[in-house]
Amino acid sequence: MRKINIFLAVVAIVFMYACKKSTERNSLQFVDDNKMVQDSLIKMQGLLKLFPESPDGLKRNYDYKNGGLYISRVFIGKEKFIKLENIKAETGFNNKQAKEFLNLSLFLKKNYVPYAYFDESFDYWFFGYREQAQDFDDVRDIILQEESQKSVINTDFKILDNEGMIFLISPKEAKIR
């Protein structure tokens, strides 16, 4: 009987943790002030517009994964040892731009925005929110929009949350859980 109670307690804890993780991705919750995050996203989007076309013709992007930074799928360096020279070589940025990119990307990563990619079909930079989705229904992205442009978003995406210019979206067909 004691083993069953322990097993049920463990199952309950795992279930509560899984529910908490899934609801976190459905609302905007940052470590820092929302306005600071919005300002950083705006600055980052300006820098990302300077990214050169990807050499393999795929989406332009950056991503923190496996403890390192990747730009357009090229490994730049381990998170704690990223060299500005590597960023400059991949992006064409000058010293100031490379340093600003690194600082902004680390700040955004700390605020659950670890990657961004350009989608040519929408002509937007999408910022990934929380962990990368393992499943279509778990995809969450952030885009920057003026409130007056909200109807444009509604045609292709579900708006899950909104703070200022920050819109948390999911695919229109996704099952929100």
Describe, in plain words, how this protein is organized in 3D.
- It is built from five helices and eight strands.
- The protein is globular, with a radius of gyration of 18 Å.
- The protein is of the alpha+beta class.
- The protein has an eight-stranded antiparallel β-sheet with strand order 3-2-1-4-5-6-8-7.
- α2 packs across α4 and α3 packs across α4.
- The relative contact order is 0.15.
- A hairpin with a 2-residue loop joins β2 and β3.
Strand content: 15-25%
> What's the order of the H and E elements?
HHEEEHHEEEHEE
Proportion of residues in helical segments: 25-40%
The overall strand count is 8
What is the CA-CA span between the terminal residues? 33 Å
Strand order of the largest sheet: 3-2-1-4-5-6-8-7
| Whole-angstrom Rg | 18 Å
Number of H- or I-type helical stretches: 5
Largest sheet: 8 strands, antiparallel
Taken from the alpha-carbon principal axes, the silhouette is globular
**What's the pLDDT, averaged over the residues?**
84
**What structural class results from the helix and strand content?**
alpha+beta
Low-confidence stretches: 7-21
Quick structural summary:
With 177 residues, the protein is an alpha+beta fold. Helices cover 39% and strands 23% of the residues.
Give the key terms.
177 residues, alpha+beta, 5 helices, 39% helix, globular
List the helices and strands and how they pair.
Layout (H helix, E strand, L loop, with lengths): L1 H23 L9 H15 L12 E5 L2 E4 L2 E5 L5 H8 L3 H16 L4 E5 L4 E5 L12 E4 L5 H7 E7 L2 E6 L6
Antiparallel strand pairs: 1-2, 1-4, 2-3, 4-5, 5-6, 6-8, 7-8
Helix pairs in contact: 2-4, 3-4
